[in-house]
Amino acid sequence: MNRDTIKKREISGRIKVDRDKCIGCLGCMSACIVSHDGHSPRNRVVISSDKVSSPIFCQNCDLPECTYTCMCGAMHIDPATGFVLYDADQCGSCYMCVMGCPYGVLRMNKIDGKISKCDMCVSDRNGQPQCVDRCPMGAIAVERGVQA
């Protein structure tokens, strides 16, 4: 994929965090693990030196480095939703996408060696990411109709 061929796209939704509400309970990570059958969470929570919790999720970037660095096309943009998706069957396990992610949310799944990447829980019946549903403080929401 070439950066010059990427045009602004509408994304069905992007996860947005209200850091003032986050208490660092890791509920979003636990919900993600459960939603993905016990595999590594697709998000992470970092705690700053002044003890502020910050959940970090895939941002479905305007110019997603993970898609440019992926040599086999496993990381790609879904034309229907605008999400950056991962196809494990196409993955060559080179981890270039992991190195290219500016947010550090992509990582190797220790169970199968593939990449753990947020899929917005698209296979979930309620259509909403589990991290959003399970956040006890309401700190996580889906921002709809975003331009990337």
Low-confidence stretches: none
- Major beta-sheet overview: 2 strands, antiparallel
Q: What do we call the CATH topology?
A: Alpha-Beta Plaits
User: What Rg is obtained from the alpha carbons, in whole angstroms?
Assistant: 15 Å
In percent, how helical is the residue content?
A: 10-25%
Instruction: Please report the first level of CATH classification, the CATH class.
Output: Alpha Beta
Question: How much is the average pLDDT?
Answer: 85
Roughly what fraction of the amino acids lie in strands? 15-25%
Number of strands: 8
Shape: globular
CATH architecture: 2-Layer Sandwich
Tally of separate helices:
4
Structural class: alpha+beta
Which series of helices and strands comes N to C? EHEEHEEHEEHE
Distance between the termini: 16 Å
Number of domains: 1
Arrangement of strands in the largest sheet = 1-8
